[in-house]
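Summary for the funding panel

The consortium committed to producing paired sequence-structure records for every protein in the target list. Below we show the first two records in order, beginning with the earlier of the two.
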Amino acid sequence: LNYWNFGDYIGIGAGAHAKLSFADRIVRQTRVRNPNVYLDRAARALRPFEEVVVDANELAFEFMLNAMRLVDGIPLRRFQERTGISPTAIEPQLAAAEAKGLMGRDAFRLWPTPTGLRFLTDLQTLFLPAV
């Protein structure tokens, strides 16, 4: 549940993934997949992982990518707690998701509707950053 709630987790071992939140950024890490390369890098005190800072424009999408898989949805306050972004910043996307019948919401909670769960990709892509 921590993963689906956009919580932090560490990855240990070859091929593992991690998500770490800091006051000013969110970082995703991917450990080297090949166990021999992973062990060799670790033995030589080299980073056995690649690190990417999640772009601020992608945080809403990243959050919804996880959170909208939860049938019961998430507390609205969690969006701001985990992304640092006010929910008012994604009001157009929330309204669009609700108008399409993909998401339900009230003053405290967001949740995928049964249709939203069936068409999860459509729901999640509403939160992709504009290009």
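The next record, for a separate protein in the list, is shown here:
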Amino acid sequence: MVLRKVTKVGNSLGITFPAEMLKKANITLGDDIEIEYKDGEIILKKSQKVNLPEGVDAEFMELLNEVIKEHDEAFRGLVDK
């Protein structure tokens, strides 16, 4: 666990993170971060969203992402075959 202070950044508030923690999370300058509030906790994670190629439907990509998450273990097993 790391203890940090909330600081003022312009008209907002901010929190800094230790470089080693960001490295472990594979987060670098310019990355998009997803922020979720759930059950009294703030959850941060690196966004996995990518810009869609022209002509690719966003709903299709969301469905594909759900299928990939659901069958992640099976897909990972295919890598070794």
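Regarding this second record: The first strand starts at residue 7 and ends at 9. Strands lie at 7-9, 12-14, 33-38, 41-46.
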